[in-house]
Every structure is written in C-alpha cells, then in structure tokens.
Amino acid sequence: MRKRIGRSRAVWVIVGILIGMVLAGQWLDTPARAVATDRGTGFVVATGRLDENIEGLYVLDLTTGDLSGVMLNRQTITFSNRYTYNVLKDFEGATDPQFTMVTGLADLRRGPTGQIQPSDAVIYVAELTTGRVVAYSVPWSRSAQSAGKPFQGDFVRLDYTKFRAGGP
Length: 168
Prior knowledge:
Layout: H1 2-28, E1 37-39, E2 43-51, E3 54-61, E4 66-72, E5 79-86, E6 99-105, E7 117-127, E8 132-140, H2 142-147, E9 151-154, E10 156-162
Parallel strand pairs: 5-9
Antiparallel strand pairs: 1-2, 2-3, 3-4, 4-5, 6-7, 7-8, 8-10
C-alpha cells in the first residue's frame, strides 16, 4: 500500500512539473506591454501604444496646457506624426491649474480600415483644482503609417468625469 501511495505521489509531482512547463511556455509567448510616465518641473511626459508594435510620446506643458505628441515612423525612422491640443479649455474655472497625465489602452476603433480612426492609446489628463479627468484619443491611420506618410492633427476629446467633489 505504501509503495502504491509513494508511486502515485511521484507520478503527480512529474505531471505537475510537466503542466507547469507547458503553461510557462505559453506565458513566455505573451509580450509584455509597458508604458512610462514621468514628471519634470514644468511638464509631464508619457508613452502609450498607438497600434501593434508602435507607440507615441506625449508631453503636457504644465504652464501653457499644451498637449503634444509624436510618433517615430518605422519606415523613415523620424518623428512623422504630430498631434496637438490645448487642454486648458477643458478645465474651465481652474485657477492656477495643477495637471498630471497618464496613458491607457482602449479598443475604440470605428469605421472602415485605412481611414483615420482612434488609436489604441487613450490619454488621461487630471486637474486638481477642478477635480476633473478628461480622456483624449489619438487619431491613427495604419495605412498612412505603412506607407510612411506623415500625419498632423489634433487629439480628440472623448469624455470627462470628476474624481473629487468641489471645483467648478
């Protein structure tokens, strides 16, 4: 009886190791998606995925409220896509605005392929005195990117919410 229990434990240990190796092999094939955000004295900078294997760089000027973005083109290896927007108009009533920014991921695509539509990136800008967070999308054209064509446009305001009571 003891030999039988000992053998079954050994079998289960071996089966567990094999299952673990198979699962680990599957998980290793899943790419890691990471973004970065940092803050300087007068600006916040963040990265966020535009599409598969390409990300954008976004900078929010804390003094002027200018949000700008660029994308490194895979064909020309230059910053070819440029995006701009002034966020101050979305935070009316903010006296001495105090901004911060992060990026997120969302599948908002609509419309026929090849036309300009939202990218995978969503940019969230929060302002302390109004207690608001505003979401912006980044216009994107996969076909223009593939052809190496530069694009220049504005970020698109999606929606806003309040994260705290008070403020205008």
